[in-house]
Fold this sequence. Notes:
Blueprint: H1 2-15, E1 20-25, H2 32-43, E2 46-49, H3 50-60, H4 67-81, H5 85-97, E3 101-105, H6 110-120, E4 123-128, H7 131-141, H8 150-164, H9 166-171, E5 175-178, H10 183-207
Parallel strand pairs: 1-3, 1-4, 2-3, 4-5
Helix pairs in contact: 3-5, 5-6
Amino acid sequence: MKKNAKKIGKKKEEKQEKPxxxxxxxxxxxxxxxxxNHVAEKYGFRKISTGDFLRREAxxxxxxxxxxxxxxxxxxxxxxxxxxxxxxxxxxEINELGLKKVSLEGLRTPIDVELAKERLGAKIILVxxxxxxxxxxxxxxxxxxxxKTYQQFLHEDAIENATFDLHKTFKMADYxxxxxxxxxxxxxxxxxxxxxxIREHNKKTRKK
Length: 208
């Protein structure tokens, strides 16, 4: 019965018109949240993040929120409920709310990106910034638990990569956005990219 229910659910999903979804991926402190905010504010996209589900789960379990704690919790959740648990929560929310335009954050593993593309038709943007620039930006933010030295930051980066196979995830991106400049420069680059993505999306929609 469960298998049949899953098949029926997937058929319903396929019949529904897929929303316009842009997935934002990138390494630590690359500016994913700022990019997602820009897309939401300027283009009317609704932000959905797998990280929100993760943080809510942390609160339920009485876990103090930090990067390391969330990483451990995410590993545990993926072991307990499956690698696709968090992305499926996001997909379910998008479909239940009937959202038409979504900026999707928190995609970490190849399976996250694979399902976002397969079931939502998502276009994936990799936010690209060199490691030292990311370290300096993180240092200026002074968030709790941030790396105090560049070596610590590189170590944290390596753990993140190994935990979630980020090198594989990043290869699945459809577009790359350079976020090494100023905020206005990045926003201009993002606007150029958005024009291209919107044009391609409209062209594909008209063909249907």
